[in-house]
Design goal:
The complex is a heterodimer of chains A (851) and B (298). Chain A is an alpha+beta fold and 851 residues long. Chain A contains 27 helices and 21 strands. In chain A, strands 1, 3, 4, 15, 16, 19 and 20 form a 7-stranded mixed beta sheet that branches. Chain A has a 4-stranded parallel beta sheet with strand order 6-5-10-11, with helices on one face. With 298 residues, chain B is α+β, with helices and mostly antiparallel strands. Chain B starts with a strand and ends in a 9-residue tail after the last strand. Classes of the chains: A alpha+beta (851), B alpha+beta (298).
Chain lengths: 851, 298
């Protein structure tokens, strides 16, 4: 069926082997599953496909799968999503599965042997250099491997050759692209192309993750209780932090950084808001050599000092075990067929890409003679290597390689440049042929391995780019078809009838608590700044329109208040203020748009984004989306001269609506556990402090009668309270009435009293050390603040003696409340966030033995 | 010969340390040439437990943690060692051409003994410059003992002892270019030279008895921890050489541990949480004891 909008006819005849070598060879017909798939896409038509691609791309962005390292100018290019999956028939897959499992079992045995008896080296099966000259062969890990600590996870990269067979390009114990990416691409695929799944029986991925979780539980040193399993990440600066967060939340594991963990008495403990909690199993996404700064790389700030000793004493299990990255040595590939024969008396089912290890004279000569046709790889990362794009070496590069290899032959391998098969890919409204590489995922199960029935395929125009790095290009979902329909499986276990299930509350790591607290504060700060700028812009408009000197005066007062509230001194106060007050546009522009200016809207949004990013697994999905969208896209493109034009006002109004959306989503979707308490405590403290700063700057000083009413009205409007005030009092702008509403009314969500009462409630609900008899300092501070509020009244606060230029009682009251709230904020940090102290390395003095 | 060695390391911090974990490689191992009669590790503030384990090289490592806030830390190792050096290995090595020794390294049966010491390690990277420096001593057919002896002598004469110039992490290329350093650097240079020409060499950490010139009183604590290197000769074993003193170690060298280079046998490693700045103080005292088994009161 042809669609007029479709630029390419997708008839099967147009899927010739020459174009899409992944589908078939010249001699074989296009397999049935591909015919079906392409027929379906053809019915969808080019424009239909394009539209859904956009949906998928949006989902990809929203889910954060883009490598978005914060504030990194060299952030890699975004990934694109390709709607045409790679499809395996169930017979094809069975063969693949057998090969993958065999290889995983083999590599597991190799890693056990290299860190154990080393029979492979002793018996001359594997040259000693493959272990001893390799940087990832970590001597402190010797003896750490055994039956109870197998290679837990294995992820090879495979490519399809032109002859239709698959070849392993690399083996990984800690893949750059973890299993979470495969899960994510499946999710995007099923959301944006639900119908595509209908004609096919596609294996679900959930079983695999269930197996992974079971395996992790089985590693736990103690089997009496539900084990505490955590996912260790290098942190939000890592390009794959998204995947870590995604997987953690899918598997229901706390996402933790090295600094959240501490080793005491050879046990690993998680610092959480409820105190220390013992960790049984660590699923790790941190590279081997960074794991323990005491015994491995001393300069690692990401690891856990003492981890290896805790592992040795059997108090914690790590998956993958530290040291397993030795299987990533590409030189091993040259020896796998021999090892497989030697140990298993069978052939390697999945061949590796042809690999020549230069540590052998004959192989080295071959590599040197074929530098132009091979990919040259070091056995472990080495600095300062020349480019290695086969066929594109300059004479100088060729010479460099020759010297490098001759100087240390055992550090290099040459690998055959695989002609990668091409997959149909939808790009710029056409179906084009793109080269692809697939990553598959395995996890240990009893004595063998299970394979995720699926994977992640990356395609790129340029095959060598694909081999060289993991960035850019398109990702494809990878399907395995099954004969019979999968049972609906998800990670949820079936309870037996009458089984009593107790909820398990995950510990909240202190660092997460801190980020939630600051997310609350920044969200509120941004919103309050918005409202104040909005009042100012309205006033600015009036000044320009009516040229009334009273308007001018109240504008100046509000501008000064803006500086005080946002702490962006000197701003509209102090030196140079007159000039800025006369033309506030430059400063206002900076306070809205300048990301470098602390206190500006843009900078608060970025800070909000960073805090929220670090705890995104704890926030409602849509809530995170709003924040991420604002962080990336709220960037008013206006010049200074356009400040008064209404465009900024429009932008700010949008921002307020979005932020309210975030507030609503967190309020309506988060369970009232510690995480929500901290988010809300941050919000309440910030709202109270903002209100105090605003009142200090606007209501404490006396104004001339003519401007007083204007300023008071602007304050009410900034606090979103003008309507309420009018409805309630219908009178003049009397100070004591304003204070009754904004300070004393404990039922009004914008008042100081309301913030203090909420804080009291939340703080009492926080987990406190139950054994301590002392009243807790945080509770004490909020009690005092409430008591002080109780001792005063709005009439009293609005009092002043004749001739005084300010309201002294109001000033004193606000100052004292501010001091207490600042102290409360610091106290919460001390009590719950256990600010990590920087670790430092202690070293011996050099051995200075004298002659 | 019997010795009592006392090795004290003190850390003083500007801010309190909240938690500190340490790994000590301070108590001597037994070797074919020495027996450690007794040894102990004293840590202040007191620690409840010190765990001992053998590392990859069978050295004695000790792990301990101080889990309460503290402003200073001191670790004292006290050991009594009997040293009895048998020099026959050097004589046997004098019969073996160095090329033959090199050939033997990769033979089955020797591989697991030699392999850990043949390749680059954190402080020692083989290079053409190191090979060039070594080659004049390794003429064709020369015996391994003579060749390494001469290499040791050349390092002794070509390099200047100067504790001000290098620190724990000065790269080997710099040491080779400047020809200044301490025992640690000289040993690394020798190891780098030997590995660059295909031999297996290791780093030995220990102490040396310093003799007081006649008429002067022995200064307690003025000694330092010492280091030298060792080369592997298949079928014979390891032969030690001390390039700092231009001698083959005999009765006056006490071995603590060995490894690929300093990083494997660093006397103390640690990670402290907090602490601000820290100062380190080291004092070593090597005293000869009467051989009759009666302990002196040093």
């Amino acid at each position: 069926m042809k669609q007029p909008s479709l630029p390419l006819n997708l008839d099967i005849d147009l899927l010739p082997a020459e174009r899409f070598s992944a589908l078939s060879t010249v001699d074989t017909p296009v397999p049935e599953q591909w015919q079906q798939l392409m027929a379906f896409l053809s019915r969808l038509g080019g424009s239909g496909l394009a539209k859904r691609c956009k949906d998928a791309q949006r989902l990809l962005k929203e889910n954060g799968a883009i490598h978005n390292v914060f504030n990194s100018p060299e952030a890699p290019r975004d990934w694109q999503f390709d709607p045409i999956p790679v499809v395996f028939s169930s017979t094809e897959w069975q063969q693949m599965e057998r090969g993958l499992v065999q290889r995983a079992e083999l590599l597991n045995r190799i890693v056990q042997d290299l860190y154990g008896p080393r029979t492979l080296i002793r018996d001359g099966i594997v040259p000693a250099e493959l272990a001893f000259a390799h940087r990832h062969f970590l001597l402190p890990c010797n003896g750490l491997f055994g039956a109870t600590s197998p290679l837990s996870l294995y992820a090879p990269d495979l490519a399809k050759g032109r002859d239709g067979s698959y070849w392993v390009l690399s083996d990984s114990a800690l893949p750059t692209l973890g299993g979470g990416y495969a899960l994510e691409s499946r999710l995007i695929m099923s959301r944006s192309f639900p119908q595509l799944f209908e004609p096919f029986q596609v294996h679900r991925l959930a079983m695999y993750f269930l197996a992974l979780r079971d395996h992790l539980s089985s590693l736990s040193p103690q089997q009496e209780q539900e084990p505490c399993i955590i996912l260790l990440t290098p942190g939000p600066d890592h390009p794959s932090f998204f995947e870590h967060a995604y997987l953690a939340s899918y598997l229901g594991l706390p996402l933790v950084q090295g600094g959240d963990l501490v080793v005491r008495d050879n046990r690993v403990w998680l610092k959480s808001v409820d105190g220390l909690r013992q960790v049984d199993v660590i699923l790790r996404r941190l590279v081997d050599e960074m794991c323990d700064p005491l015994e491995l790389r001393g300069d690692s700030l990401l690891g856990i000092p003492g981890l290896l000793e805790a592992v040795r004493s059997g108090q914690v299990a790590v998956a993958n075990p530290v040291g397993s990255q030795i299987i990533e040595n590409p030189a091993l590939m040259a020896f796998l067929p021999t090892i497989c024969r030697h140990w298993r008396d069978e052939d390697l089912l999945l061949p590796s890409v042809a690999t020549w290890w230069c540590g052998q004279a004959h192989e080295c000569n071959y590599v040197l003679d074929h530098l132009d046709e091979l990919t040259i790889r070091p056995i472990h990362p080495l600095p300062g290597l020349p480019q290695s794009t086969p066929g594109q070496l300059t004479a100088q590069q060729r010479q460099q390689w020759r010297q490098l290899i001759l100087a240390n032959p055992h550090l290099f391998v040459g690998q055959q440049l695989m002609e990668l098969a091409t997959f149909p890919t939808f790009e710029n409204n056409e179906i084009v042929a793109r080269r692809g590489i697939s990553t598959f995922y395995l996890t240990a199960q009893r004595d063998s391995y299970v394979v995720m029935p699926g994977g992640l395929t990356r395609v790129h125009e340029d095959g060598s780019n694909l081999l060289a790095n993991n960035e850019g290009g398109r990702i494809k979902d990878t399907w395995v078809l099954t004969e019979e329909q999968d049972k609906q499986v998800n990670l949820w276990l079936q309870a037996h009838p009458n089984q009593l299930l107790r909820p398990v509350f995950m510990p909240l790591p202190s660092r997460c608590a801190e980020n939630l607290f600051w997310a609350g504060r920044y969200a509120e700060r941004t919103e309050q700044t918005c409202r104040l700028i909005r009042s100012i812009l309205t006033k600015l408009y009036e000044v320009n329109e009516f040229h009334d000197p009273d308007d001018r005066q109240s504008l100046d007062q509000l501008l000064r208040a803006l500086t005080h509230v946002t702490l962006t001194y000197p701003g509209f106060t102090g030196e140079g203020a007159d000039k800025k007050l006369a033309d506030p546009r430059g400063e206002l522009h900076a306070l809205a748009c300048d990301s470098q200016r602390i206190g500006s809207l843009r900078s608060s949004l970025i800070s909000l984004g960073q805090s929220a990013y670090a705890v995104r697994d704890l926030l409602p999905e849509d809530g995170w989306r709003i924040v991420d969208n604002l962080r990336q896209n709220w960037h008013p493109r206006i010049s200074k001269s356009q400040i008064g034009s209404g465009r900024l006002l429009k932008n700010i109004n949008e921002l307020i609506v979005q932020l309210s959306g975030f507030t609503g989503l967190t309020g309506e979707n988060m369970s009232r556990e510690t995480a929500w308490l901290l988010l809300n405590i941050g919000r309440r403290i910030e709202r109270a402090l903002n209100l105090i700063a605003l009142l200090q700057a606007t209501l404490v000083p006396c104004q001339q009668n003519s401007t007083e009413a204007q300023i008071r009205e602007a304050v009410l409007s900034t606090c979103n309270s003008l309507m309420v005030f009018r409805r309630r009092y219908r009178s003049f702008m009397q100070l004591s009435l304003i204070l009754e509403l904004l300070i004393m009314d404990e039922h009004y969500p914008r008042s100081l009293a309301y913030q203090l009462h909420q804080l009291h409630k939340h703080i009492c609900a926080l987990p406190h050390d139950k054994l301590s008899q002392q009243p807790h300092q945080d509770q004490q501070l909020i009690d005092e603040a409430l008591a002080e509020l109780g001792r005063t009244g709005h009439k009293k606060l609005a009092g002043r003696a004749e001739g005084e230029e300010e309201y002294p009682l109001l000033r004193v009251f606000l100052e004292s409340q501010k001091k207490r709230l600042d102290l409360l904020s610091d106290t919460l940090m001390q009590l719950y966030f256990s600010p990590s102290v920087a670790p430092q390395q202690l070293r011996s003095a050099p051995q200075e033995g004298r002659p | 010969m019997r010795y009592r060695v006392r090795h004290l390391t003190g850390y003083r911090y500007s801010d309190p340390v909240q938690l500190c974990r340490n790994e000590a490689c301070l108590l001597p191992r037994n070797t074919p040439h020495q027996r450690c009669l007794d040894s102990r590790l004293e840590v202040v503030p007191l620690v409840t437990e010190i765990e001992e384990r053998r590392d990859f090289f069978d050295n004695r490592l000790h792990f301990f943690a101080i889990q309460t806030p503290h402003n200073s830390l001191s670790i004292t190792a006290v050991s009594t060692i009997d040293v009895e050096v048998d020099q026959t290995g050097y004589a046997l090595g004098a019969q073996i051409p160095w090329e033959q020794a090199r050939m033997g390294l990769t033979q089955t049966g020797e591989l697991l003994n030699s392999a850990p010491y043949m390749y680059n390690s954190p402080h020692v990277t083989a290079s053409a410059a190191l090979a060039d420096y070594a080659i004049p001593s390794f003429g064709a057919g020369r015996s391994i003992t003579d060749a390494v002896d001469e290499l040791m002598q050349r390092i002794y004469h070509d390099f200047t002892y100067d504790p001000e110039v290098t620190n724990v992490s000065t790269p080997l290329t710099e040491v080779l270019a400047n020809r200044h350093g301490v025992c640690q650097d000289f040993s690394h240079v020798a190891i780098g030279c030997l590995r660059s020409i295909g031999l297996a060499a290791r780093y030995v950490s220990g102490y040396i008895e310093t003799l007081t010139p006649p008429g002067q009183e022995r200064l307690v604590g003025a000694d330092a921890s010492h280091a030298w290197f060792s080369v592997y000769v298949p079928t014979i074993g390891w032969l030690d050489f001390d390039p700092t003193n231009n001698q083959r170690p005999h009765q006056q060298h006490i071995t603590v541990a060995w490894g690929r280079d300093f990083s494997d046998v660093s006397p103390l490693k640690g990670v402290a949480l907090g602490g601000g700045h820290h100062e380190v103080l080291v004092s070593v005292d090597v005293a000869r004891l009467p051989d009759n088994g009666v302990r002196s009161n040093i």
